[in-house]
Specification:
The protein is of the alpha/beta class and about 250 residues long. The chain has a domain of about 160 residues. Helices cover about 20% and strands about 20% of the residues. The chain is built from 5 helices and 9 strands; from the N terminus they run αββββαβββαβαβα. It has a 7-stranded mixed β-sheet with strand order 1-2-3-5-4-8-9, sandwiched between helices. A two-stranded antiparallel sheet has the order 6-7. It is elongated, with a radius of gyration of 18 Å.
């Protein structure tokens, strides 16, 4: 039997905790691990996965994601937020970009951090007795493409001339879906017996959570699949559809 809803208590706790996930202080970056390494070979705490291939950040820098292996039957798939861009003004790295351009180089608040010392927060406080996700495995997908994790092509933006600079072109790699799909496929290959999957994200990571939830629901037809988005309201006005029209997004049927 398919389950698509979590309890009110768990959802409420998750919603209150999501914003804190990306705010914990950084620790030393973990060494990248073999893309094909089984879960049993992953280190305790956060592991860095570099998928390569067509994955990339907006500026061409490498994309990587992070995995914390715990209970293999319970998985949290978290999509990081970080703004968005769809015009020369909002995308130009030399102007006033409104998005995160490069991926995290290190993960935050690894397993074992003491929540009482403020070194882990929200759903990343794995030692907190009231954290409903303390025993879950985590896949953390960084955001660095300006396309709310659902772009799959490059875009060339025309930056107009100014008194100081001539007109120029800026190429932005809107490959958020390519990156997210790499993390998704890795999750499929390594969590073969997932029974509970929780897809979530904040801000720009909240917007695509239903898209990824659909993929998970189709791949794990007998699992309990739940999606919770936090902070996507900035795009709720009709006028904001200009961003949807302008972004080189993947069409999802």
């Amino acid at each position: 039997m398919k389950h698509r809803h979590s309890t009110i208590g768990i959802l409420t706790a998750a919603l209150l905790a999501l914003a804190a996930l990306a705010c914990a202080p950084a620790e030393e970056a973990p060494e990248p691990v073999d893309l094909q390494a089984p879960l049993a070979d992953l280190a305790e705490g956060w592991n860095t996965i570099t998928p390569g291939g067509d994955t990339t950040c907006s500026d061409g820098s490498p994309f990587q994601f992070f995995v914390r292996a715990a209970d293999p039957t319970q998985v949290v798939f978290y999509l990081q937020g970080g703004g968005g861009c769809w015009t020369a003004q909002t995308c130009d790295p030399e102007g006033r970009p409104t998005y995160t351009m490069t991926a995290l180089e290190e993960m935050h608040s690894p397993s074992g951090a003491d929540p009482e010392e403020g070194t882990a927060h929200g759903i990343a406080a794995f030692n907190h007795p009231e954290n409903p996700f303390a025993d879950h495995s985590f896949v953390f997908v960084p955001y660095c493409t300006g396309d709310v994790h659902i772009g799959d092509r490059d875009a060339v933006y025309e930056v107009p001339a100014t008194e100081e600079e001539p007109a120029r072109q800026v190429t932005i790699h809107h490959r958020g879906y390519t990156n997210g799909r790499a993390a998704l496929d890795w999750t499929y290959e390594h969590f073969l017996g997932a029974e509970t999957v929780f897809i979530t994200g904040s801000s720009a990571g909240s917007i695509p959570s239903p898209v990824y939830a659909r993929h998970f629901a189709e791949h794990y037809p007998d699992a309990r699949v739940t999606a919770l988005g936090d902070g996507a309201g900035g795009y709720r006005q009709i006028g904001d559809t200009r961003a949807r029209r302008a972004l080189p997004l993947r069409e999802h049927g």
